[in-house]
Design brief:
The chain has a domain at 72-185: Immunoglobulin-like. The chain is an alpha+beta fold and 228 residues long. The chain has helices at 2-29, 177-180, and strands at 39-41, 47-51, 56-57, 72-76, 81-83, 87-94, 102-108, 114-122, 131-138, 150-156, 169-176, 198-200, 206-210, 215-216. The N and C termini lie far apart (132 Å). A hairpin with an 8-residue loop joins strand 8 and strand 9 (131-138). The protein has 2 helices and 14 strands; from the N terminus they run H-E-E-E-E-E-E-E-E-E-E-E-H-E-E-E. It has an 8-stranded mixed beta sheet with strand order 4-6-9-8-7-10-11-5.
C-alpha cells in the first residue's frame, strides 16, 4: 500500500514539475506580452497604450517646435546664404501678415539701395490668425561695381492702411554670388593706424611701428651695408 502511495505521489510531483516547465517554455516562446488596456493621453491629444516587454506606455508623438517669432518664420533663405537671382523664398506667417493673400519682399544691397522687389503668396486661407505657409520668387539686378557682396532680403507685412503702427518687417542678411566670386577678402581690410612711439636702435637711429601688426621696423645692421 505504501509503495502504491509513493508511486502516486511521484507521478503527481512529475506532473506538476512538467506543467511548470511547459508553462515557462511557453512564456519564453510567446511572441508578445499581454499588457493592460489603459491609455495615456498625450499633449497633442492623441492616446498611447502600454507595450512590452515591461508594459510601459509607448512614447507620445513629438510636438513640433514652437516658432521663435510669433508673426513670421522664414525658412528660406537662411541668414548668410549665398544667393543668385532669382531667389526662391518660403516660410509661414500669421494671416494678418498678408493682404489679399500676398505680402511684399524687397532685396537691398550693402548700403540699403533697393535692387529687387516682389511678393510672397499665402498658400492657404489667409483670413485667419494662425500661421499660413507662403512662397515666392524674387528677382534682383546688382551692379558689378558694387564694392561689397553683402545685402539683405526684407520681408514686409502688407499694410494697406498706410498707418505706421501697422508696419512690420524682418530682414535676412545674404551674400550675392554675382559679386562674391570676384570679391577679395582684402577688399574688406581696413587701414591700420599704428601708435607714433619709436624705438632707438644700437646705431643711434630710430624706427617706428609699421602695419599690419604695428611691430617696430627692423633696425639697420650695425657695420653692415648701407640700408637703402
Amino acid at each position: 500500500m505504501k509503495s502504491f502511495i509513493t508511486i502516486i505521489g511521484g507521478l503527481v510531483v512529475l506532473f506538476i514539475a512538467g506543467s511548470i516547465f511547459m508553462a515557462m517554455q511557453h512564456a519564453a516562446e510567446a511572441p508578445g506580452v499581454a499588457c493592460t488596456t489603459e491609455a495615456l493621453i498625450c499633449p497633442d491629444g492623441s492616446a498611447v497604450g502600454r507595450t512590452g516587454p515591461n508594459c510601459s506606455f509607448a512614447p507620445c508623438p513629438e510636438l513640433p517646435e514652437a516658432p521663435t517669432d510669433d508673426m513670421i518664420v522664414i525658412e528660406e533663405p537662411r541668414a548668410g546664404a549665398v544667393l543668385t537671382s532669382p531667389v526662391t523664398v518660403s516660410g509661414m506667417a500669421r494671416g494678418s501678415w498678408f493682404f489679399e493673400a500676398s505680402a511684399p519682399v524687397t532685396v537691398v544691397n550693402w548700403d540699403g539701395l533697393i535692387i529687387g522687389q516682389g511678393h510672397v503668396t499665402a498658400e492657404g486661407d489667409w483670413m485667419t490668425s494662425e500661421f499660413v505657409p507662403f512662397s515666392g520668387t524674387i528677382s534682383y539686378t546688382i551692379d558689378s561695381n558694387t564694392p561689397y557682396d553683402r545685402g539683405a532680403i526684407i520681408f514686409q507685412k502688407d499694410n494697406p492702411s498706410g498707418l505706421p503702427e501697422h508696419d512690420d518687417a524682418r530682414e535676412i542678411p545674404i551674400t550675392f554670388s554675382e559679386l562674391s566670386a570676384t570679391h577679395s577678402p582684402a577688399d574688406d581690410t581696413e587701414t591700420v593706424f599704428c601708435t607714433m612711439d619709436a624705438m632707438q636702435c644700437p646705431d643711434g637711429s630710430w624706427v617706428g611701428r609699421v602695419a599690419p601688426s604695428c611691430a617696430f621696423a627692423p633696425c639697420p645692421h650695425v657695420g653692415g651695408p648701407e640700408v637703402q
